[in-house]
Design brief:
It contains 14 helices and twelve strands. It is of the alpha/beta class. It binds iron/sulfur cluster (2 copies).
Length: 367
């Protein structure tokens, strides 16, 4: 029997009829595809750690395809945060920006960035997770075709192409039939319907009724860490004064108290030197997980992570946002006094910003 694959559709937060329509068009077309287990969840980012949505996702052991209204990175590292891990499945659905970034990534890697990333120290389960961004296209067919392509790819490794040959399934037509069987002798899988007991002919309608999960629609706000970029430098834990970050047993950074994060505050994502902190719901694409390459020569990341509307650099915006949140919480603003010196040390040979130069001058005067 061909290997099944779970297809998770994460619904948008808004009630936008166009979004609902796209989701439903995809779901209804996939109902009739063999080998798929459909799961429909509320917005992935808003799921509660102990809710039924997360329970269902954690119950999926094999490969999965996740369609969501999030950047690919945002979806992948949100899943990771909840322990839903696997190797990155590659999708052919890319935004134009992503294609440019792939070239930048190759360039950055050719430029020899050999830093150790947290992901290099992790054992990932031997399965693939494919994240498809529903915001790239408004045509359901593109997603339906991609899901079918991945499902075919998913089915092949179970037997392997050489295995097909050894089983005597030599021709492409035979292989295709093996991947998408046409017989109806198998026992019904999840959601398959048979006719009433007593029928002379057991008619099987091979469509998989999706598992629909509902949770209350409370919106959440917390950072997720992209461990393929994170170098465990601990700058985020030094910078955040709200106790969001912590470390695990082997001293690896993690988001320990996500709900301590101040709603709307993206400050630490602006100061992470590897651009590894994602706020999937932020309006700025780079902060929400758009695929920029840390260290890219073509892009001024300080501008991308800054606040163009106020003309601030990333660091200036981060300090202001953190101070605003401290004041809102009834605490004192700290400006650049906390969590930033380490960053300035890294800038050896670079001009310090004006405020740092002023502080240095005052230190020298010993006032
Ligand atoms: S600042 Fe960024 S790279 Fe450093 S530990 Fe935090 S997430 Fe990782
Ligand atoms: S966004 Fe602000 S409150 Fe949230 S983790 Fe980062 S610094 Fe802390």
């Amino acid at each position: 029997m061909a290997k099944r694959i779970a297809v998770v559709v994460s619904q948008g937060q808004s009630a936008s009829p166009a979004k609902r329509q796209l989701e439903e068009d995809i779901i209804s077309a996939l109902l009739f595809e063999q080998g798929l287990d459909l799961v429909i969840i509320p917005h992935l980012y808003d799921l509660k750690p102990d809710g039924t949505g997360m329970l269902a996702l954690n119950g999926i052991m094999g490969n999965m395809i996740v369609l969501s209204w999030l950047y690919e990175r945002g979806a992948r590292w949100t899943l990771d945060r909840f322990g839903i891990r696997g190797k990155e499945g590659l999708t052919l659905i890319k935004s134009e920006d992503d294609e440019e970034e792939d070239e930048d990534a190759e360039e950055a890697s050719a430029n020899g960035d050999n830093k150790e990333r947290v992901i290099d120290t992790q054992d990932l389960p031997n399965r693939r997770i494919y994240c498809l961004d529903l915001r790239i296209h408004d045509k359901a067919q593109i997603y339906i075709d991609e899901v079918k392509r991945i499902a075919r790819e998913n089915a092949l490794p179970l037997v392997g192409l050489s295995g097909l040959g050894m089983s005597g399934l030599a021709s492409p037509e035979q292989a295709a039939r093996f991947v998408t069987p046409t017989n109806n002798t198998a026992l019904p899988m999840m959601g398959e319907h048979t006719s009433a007991p007593g029928s002379i002919v057991a008619e099987t309608k091979s469509f998989a009724e999706p598992l629909r999960i509902a949770e209350d629609g409370t919106r959440r706000w917390y950072p997720v860490i992209d461990y393929s970029r994170c170098t465990n430098c601990m700058e985020c834990i030094d910078f955040c004064l709200f106790g969001v970050y912590g470390v695990d047993k082997v001293e690896t950074i993690l988001v320990e108290q996500p709900d301590n994060c101040r709603k709307g505050c993206p400050a630490c994502s602006r100061v992470c030197p590897e651009n590894a902190i994602i706020f999937p719901q932020h309006k700025t694409p780079t902060i929400a997980g758009a695929d920029v390459v840390a260290g890219s020569l073509k892009i001024d990341l300080s501008l991308l992570f800054g606040a163009p509307e106020t003309g601030e650099t990333a660091e200036q915006a981060a300090v202001r946002e953190r101070d605003e949140q401290l004041l809102l919480a009834g605490r004192q603003a700290v400006g650049t006094a906390v969590g930033l010196p380490k960053r300035q040390e890294h800038k050896s040979g670079e001009a310090k910003d004006e405020l740092d130069s002023l502080i240095d001058a005052l230190d020298e005067l010993d006032v």
